[in-house]
């Protein structure tokens, strides 16, 4: 699908398949086109080109268009948007067809599913944020949508509530066997919820896969950096090898003279104390140790973040260590990088 605003391609050739019972997370930084993609699928935004199918049936191309309310798509957005003048029962019944008794039965079933039966005659303003969120889920699922579209549905909730509600929501969606497309800019949320992550940047999906694969086999440096802090060493390739203070890295197929970035996460750096100016010897798993001095160290709760300055070229390397580790500034130490956790990417200008 493609959608441009003012000559800028905000969604640029996005193609997605959502499977029943599976949660696909469209993950990316603010403004990359996630919501616009979702809005086109929902039918509240028209694509410039592209087609949308539900269960093999065309629901929208640039000529033909099933209206949003007939797409059998459930929607859930950040602000819940419950109807304030309708009771909980009225909200959940909205969008249901059938006799009064059938509607009532489905409302009761859905409220039981979200453990909100007691609230059936209350009004939205009498409910907490978490309770409203559950009603919004019940309302969206009541008509048995074939796909659920969720746009940052948990971002209005406070942190402590969020994890619990996320897990509950996920369990209910799985029970209902609904296919879900969930938009989020939070990697943690995507890792927690997704069967598949579609990583989006500048209107394009740059990578798709199970959370583990997207995290451990990123396609470029920006993808590494999107999930966590990322360290970078820039090096020039000679004879398919990139020389760094941490030893040589393989750069197969990269022409001589090309610059590459060696990228690694702070949790994959090992620290050793200096022993009379000597560090640990080189190993196949961790390469060569490089001398560095502590710039600053901060306690982060579960871990400590220590920033080092490399003797070699003054580059700053971030290292996380579980628990409390707060060495004094200027302490000399030796750093090694876990070789199996490093990525070698072509260097990009300005990055
Ligand atoms: N109706 C519109 N008119 C003009 N520009 C728009 C319109 N809707 C979206 N845009 C622009 O398209 C880009 C993508 O917006 P979109 O809301 O899809 O991003 P997003 O990835 O969902 O971001 P966020 O997480 O901040 O919601 C933004 O730069 C936005 O300003």
Automatic annotation (TrEMBL):
UniProt protein name: ABC transporter ATP-binding protein
Matching PROSITE patterns: ABC_TRANSPORTER_1 (PS00211), ABC_TRANSPORTER_2 (PS50893)
Coiled coil (residue ranges): none
InterPro entries: AAA+_ATPase, ABC_SmlMolc_Importer, ABC_transporter-like_ATP-bd, ABC_transporter-like_CS, ABC_transpr_FbpC, Mo/tungstate-bd_C_term_dom, P-loop_NTPase, Transp-assoc_OB_typ2
GO molecular function: ATP binding
CDD domains named among the record's database cross-references: ABC_Carb_Solutes_like
Key words, A-Z: ATP-binding, Cell membrane, Ion transport, Iron, Iron transport, Membrane, Nucleotide-binding, Transport
Pfam family, one: ABC_tran
Start and end residues of each ABC transporter domain: 2-227
């Amino acid at each position: 699908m493609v959608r441009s605003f003012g000559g800028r391609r905000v969604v640029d050739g996005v193609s997605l398949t959502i499977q029943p019972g599976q949660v696909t997370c469209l993950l990316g930084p603010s403004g990359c086109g996630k919501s616009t993609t979702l809005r086109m699928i929902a039918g509240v935004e028209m694509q410039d080109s592209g087609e949308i199918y539900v269960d093999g049936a065309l629901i929208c191309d640039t000529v033909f268009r099933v209206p949003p309310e007939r797409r059998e798509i459930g929607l859930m957005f950040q602000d819940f948007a419950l109807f304030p003048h309708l009771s909980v029962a009225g909200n959940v019944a909205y969008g249901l067809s059938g006799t009064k008794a059938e509607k009532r039965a489905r409302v009761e079933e859905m409220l039981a599913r979200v453990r909100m039966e007691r609230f059936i005659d209350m009004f939205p303003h009498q409910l907490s944020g978490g309770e409203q969120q559950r009603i919004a889920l019940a309302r969206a699922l009541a008509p048995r949508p074939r796909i659920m579209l969720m746009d940052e549905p948990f971002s209005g909730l406070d942190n402590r509530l969020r994890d619990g509600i996320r897990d509950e929501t996920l369990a209910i969606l799985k029970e209902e066997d609904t296919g879900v497309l969930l938009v989020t800019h939070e990697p943690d949320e995507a890792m927690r919820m997704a069967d598949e992550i579609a990583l989006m940047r500048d209107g394009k999906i740059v990578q798709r896969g199970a959370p583990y694969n997207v995290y451990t086999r990123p396609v470029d440096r920006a993808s590494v950096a999107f999930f966590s802090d990322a360290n970078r060493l820039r090096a020039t390739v000679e004879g398919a090898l990139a020389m760094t203070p941490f030893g040589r890295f393989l750069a197969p197929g990269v022409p001589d003279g090309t610059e590459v970035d060696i990228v690694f996460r702070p949790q994959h750096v090992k620290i050793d104390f200096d022993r009379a100016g000597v560090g640990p010897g080189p190993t196949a798993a961790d390469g060569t140790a490089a001398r560095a001095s502590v710039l600053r160290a901060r306690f982060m709760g579960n871990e400590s973040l220590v920033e080092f300055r490399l003797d070699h070229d003054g580059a700053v390397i971030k290292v996380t260590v579980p628990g409390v580790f707060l060495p004094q500034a200027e302490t000399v130490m030796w750093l090694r990088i876990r070789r199996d956790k490093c990525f070698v990417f072509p260097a990009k200008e300005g990055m």
